[in-house]
Amino acid sequence: RRERQRFVDKNGRCNVQHGNLGGESSRYLSDLFTTLVDLKWRWNLLIFLLTYTVAWLVMASMWWGIAYMRGDLQHTHDDTYSPCVANVYNFPSAFLFFIETEATIGYGHRYITERCPEGIVLFLFQSLLGSVVDAFLIGCMFIKMSQPKKRAETLMFSRAAVISQRDGKLCLMFRVGNLRNSHMVSAQIRCKLIKSRQTPEGEFLPLDQCELDVGFGTGADQLFLVSPLTICHEINSESPFFCLSQRSLRSEQFEIVVILEGIVETTGMTCQARTSYTEDEVLWGHRFLPVMSLEDGFFHVDYSQFHATFEVPTPPYSVKE
Questions:
Q1: Phi-psi label, residue 108: left if phi above 0, alpha if psi -120 to 50, beta otherwise
Q2: Architecture of the CATH domain 24-146
Q3: Domain 150-311 has what CATH class?
Q4: Which of 82, 132, 144, 260 has the most C-beta neighbours closer than 10 Å?
Q5: Cα torsion at 209, 211, 212, 214 (round to 10°)?
Q6: 4-52: pLDDT as tens digits
Q7: Residues 6+ apart with CB under 8 A from 79
Q8: For the CA atoms of 91, 93, 95, 97, what is the dihedral angle to 10 degrees?
Q9: HSE-up of 2 (CA within 13 Å, CB side)?
Q10: How many whole angstroms separate alpha carbon 234 and alpha carbon 120?
Q11: Domain-by-domain residue ranges, the chain?
């Protein structure tokens, strides 16, 4: 079967693009900090470099303008003249004075004198503006670097989901795992069934979302994720798969979105990992191979068998049948 468009990719990226916002696009500017954090790295770096470059050139031009208007540039070698900023006699020297002041380097060769009130005002303005720009841009870069998106890449989901019997009940199952030794605190898993349907009133819902019970009532959705776990959804009369059989599975079109959330133990930040399974990735009559074995004093996890399944006898009928 030709691969169809997914709502959520296997890597967790949502295939949704917002268009024709009209006047609502101004909302992005009202929350400029979040907009910058959400941008890709190349745009963040470009904005970072352009903002500092423009700010440096503008402020250096203002210092050069003060020296030009006061006539300091015409008294470069006059030891009896008191300039606004000592040893500023052209634009490069004004630029170097600004950099030394902004970065608090203080080489001591260029310095502002007390006979320059406009220079003192510009110095205070430069200090305030520099603090605001540094706090905004550096804070934005820090938040972007500390986002736990990369932590989600070390949370694994099985490539396929399986349907087989467990404890005498027909169940839909998939496997999750944590590749790191650091734990996910308060890890919780949820599942959404995305399927088109038509209401009795004739309304067509193209991407209707329905919750799949993975143990809300029993607490099985709260995970202690120190080793790979098999998440189980019992197919019963309240399940959306109540009428699903092995034969009808071939003609169905649905997508199961899995959302795993938890707190990263090392940073304390909330992390979310996502994946999805289409009807082609649901294997009827299969079960996952064991990956845990007892070694000398510890339990060993073999991730080479993480995605492996094997066939087991399973009735081809639906629970309803």
A1: left
A2: Orthogonal Bundle (1.10)
A3: mainly beta
A4: 260
A5: 140
A6: 788 888 888 888 877 777 767 677 777 788 888 888 888 888 998 999 8
A7: none
A8: -140
A9: 2
A10: 74
A11: 24-146, 150-311
Query: Do 305 and 289 contact (CB within 8 A), yes or no?
Result: yes
- Of 5, 4, 9, nearest in space to 257 by CA: 9
As given in the structure block, the two tokens for residue 2 are 């030709």
Would you tell me the crossing angle of helices 91-102 and 117-145 to the nearest 10 degrees? Answer: 60
**Within the chain, what is the greatest distance between any pair of CA atoms?**
105
Q: Is the entire prediction scored with pTM above 0.85?
A: no
Q: Which residue has the tokens 């087989």?
A: 164
Task: Give the amino acid at 247.
Answer: R
| Sole residue written with tokens 């009559």 | 285
Count Cβ atoms within 10 A of the Cβ of residue 63 and give its class: 0-12 exposed, 13-18 middle, 19 or more buried: buried
Q: What gap in Å lies between CA 186 and CA 61, rounded to an integer? A: 55
Would you call 37 helix, strand, or coil by DSSP? helix
Nearest-angstrom CA–CA distance, 128 and 287: 64
Residue pair 120/112 in contact by the 8 Å Cβ criterion: yes
The token duo for 50 is 């352009």
If pLDDT is split at 50, 70 and 90, which confidence band does 2 have?
A: low
- How far from the centroid of its chain's Cα atoms is residue 85's Cα? 47
Phi and psi based region of residue 247 (left: phi greater than 0; alpha: psi -120 to 50; beta: remaining): alpha
Residue-wise over 257-293: b if at least 16 C-beta within 10 A, else e?
bbbbbbebeeeeeebebbbbbbbebbbbbbbbeebee
